[in-house]
Design a protein that fits this description.
By secondary structure, this protein is of the alpha/beta class. It has helices at 14-20, 27-33, 37-44, 49-57, 64-75, 78-101, 119-130, 147-159, 195-208, 224-232, 242-251; strands at residues 108-112, 138-144, 164-168, 181-186, 209-220, 256-261, 267-273. The protein has a domain at 85-225 and 238-273: 3-Layer(aba) Sandwich (Rossmann fold), CATH 3.40.50.150. The protein has 11 helices and 7 strands. A 7-stranded mixed β-sheet has the order 3-2-1-4-5-7-6, with helices on both faces. Helix 3 (37-44) runs antiparallel to helix 4 and helix 6 crosses helix 7 (119-130). The longest helix is centred in the N-terminal third of the chain and has 24 residues, at 78-101. The protein is globular, with a radius of gyration of 19 Å. The two termini are 31 Å apart.
């Protein structure tokens, strides 16, 4: 059965687990962190689309004053700001792609997978329109395994005047897709896949992209405190360098591959063209 990577775990009780394992000194930290909406979402639904979108929106919230204060502090952590950079990268690459491609082609198909709240697609579309471009010949697609996520993705895009075509299925199964695409964004997903799975995913994307199509993806390197919080939330993350992404993309069939890192040198980015 396919796994819900956007809701990777619903722990019965991390607090009880800490208690059973004798990690009593960590209990006050855990309960304090739970006053932050971002941290609580991370603990209750590890790696969820709400967790990621909270970071992308960058609007602190929480229980009581301490929760909002803590949420604001967490959102300003270097690792979290770097996490947000992958959203900026996907948004900017798509906006650039639309500006260049729409000047010389009839229409384009853009896909986000797994989509979560497709803020990267919507904000890139908004930027394109703000620069005088039109979205009339742009078809936006979203894929996820979770029907609830797809419903929220459709609603979010609609609120911004963008229609999306919904594909429900396992991202690793090419049968989940019934179209071909010119641009694919997949960030924050490969971190939950081992190397063989990520190579398989990139292989699926390579087959789905039309000639000249572009894939953007991401990876992250390990930071001790951020890794502690992820492990506390029972998130199993695969850390990779930009070079690792490039090697997997080439193994999946991509030839034109480039990589970069954000200013924090935490997030690594892949841009691969077919």
């Amino acid at each position: 059965m396919a796994e819900f990577y956007n809701r990777t775990r619903r722990s019965s009780s991390i607090g009880n687990k800490l208690l059973r394992s004798g990690r009593l000194l960590e209990l006050p930290i855990y309960w304090l962190l739970r006053t932050s909406d971002l941290a609580r979402e991370g603990f209750e639904n590890s790696g969820s689309y709400r967790f990621a979108d909270h970071i992308y929106r960058n609007q602190p919230s929480g229980r009581y004053f301490v929760g909002r204060w803590l949420d604001r502090r967490i959102l300003k952590m270097q690792a979290v700001e770097s996490f947000r950079n992958r959203f900026f990268m996907a948004r900017d690459e798509l906006a650039r792609f639309l500006e260049e491609r729409m000047q010389r082609t009839g229409s384009v198909d853009v896909l986000s997978v797994p989509c979560g709240i497709p803020r990267d697609l919507v904000t890139a579309g908004d930027r394109h329109r703000a620069r005088g471009g039109s979205l009339e010949r742009v078809r936006f697609h979203v894929l996820d395994l979770d029907e609830q996520v797809l419903s929220q993705a459709r609603q979010f895009a609609s609120e911004h005047g963008i229609a999306v075509t919904v594909h429900r299925g396992d991202a690793l199964d090419i049968r989940s897709y019934d179209d071909q695409f010119d641009f694919i964004t997949s960030t924050g997903f490969g971190e939950f896949l081992d190397d063989s799975q990520l190579k398989q995913l990139y292989g699926v994307f390579h087959r789905l992209l039309r000639p000249g199509g572009v894939l953007v993806s991401s990876a992250m390197r390990r930071l001790p405190f951020a890794d502690y919080l992820l492990r506390l939330a029972e998130l199993k993350v695969h850390y990779r360098s930009p070079g690792d992404l490039a090697s997997l993309a080439r193994a999946a069939g991509f030839v034109d591959v480039s990589t970069s890192s954000d200013d924090c040198s935490i997030q690594g980015f892949l841009k691969a063209s077919k």
